[in-house]
Amino acid sequence: MPLDTLDRAPPPFFKQGPSALSKLVLLSALALFLMVADARFHLVQPLRAVIATVLYPAQWLALQPVQWVETASGYLTDLKTARKTEEAARVQLAAQSQRAGQVEQLLLENTRLRELLALRERTAVPSQAAQVLYDATDPFSRRVVIDKGQLQGIAPGSPVLDESGVLGQVTQVYPFVSEVTLLIDRDQVIPVVNTRTGVRGVAYGDPGARDGMMELRYMPATVDFKEGDLLATSGIDGVYPPGLPVARVVSVDRQSDTSFARIRCQPLARLQGVTHVMVLTPMADVAPAPAAPAAAAPATTPAERRAAAASKAGRAATPPKAGRNTPGRSSP
User: What is the DSSP letter of 74?
Assistant: First the structure.
């Protein structure tokens, strides 16, 4: 057997060198020395800077996936939060818009009620407030239905006003509701007087005209009327109290081939969209004052006599039979 194959290392029992415990103590002391030296004299700071510079690209590449995930997660979270905030803002805006509309409507209604109350204070005739429910179903007439009837003391022929002026006249009375014929109905007539000149006339409804108009008929072509004149009730029919605003003259047509003038008027009352009205007691049912002045001048023209007869005929209309409590209602 060759001699070079023999292990020349000494056996473990005779092995030379420091023990493991000695190495541990030595290395611990060296580490402690380096830590103290670095803390006091910054001996390894340049080496640390070089290592950090060399490893920075690797650290940057290693951190990119983490940053991408965090950025995407933050974007999705912010997008979800923004959508929720936008939806909540839309709901709040819709609620505020609806509330603003209701407030505006209430303010307008309050203003109209105040004007109606002021008109009631200026009218020395017993009256009561009522609310318009709906329009009557008859397509050939202009009528509305109010929420007061016989049980509340409403009588046929009672004048009806809104905050601007005369609206019409009660023509049908039921136990709980009543029908009011508007001024622009073809069968409605009302004696009026020009507040500027004192000239009296009779206004007829003209439902065929645009926006609802009235017409003064049988007026001489030389009559003193002009655009803008205010017409008020004359009181000669015994139904409407005198002095109530009715309409305003919008056109005066004097044609050479006729002896009459065509005078068209716009009612002052709101014929569309009225909600609250005031029902007056007919003048014939109002007890005269103890010291009443001289009686009003009777109708002096055939037209005025016809208007007075028509108003009294509307007031004396016979109410429908019992059991017919509610008139027909138009579809909304």
Answer: H
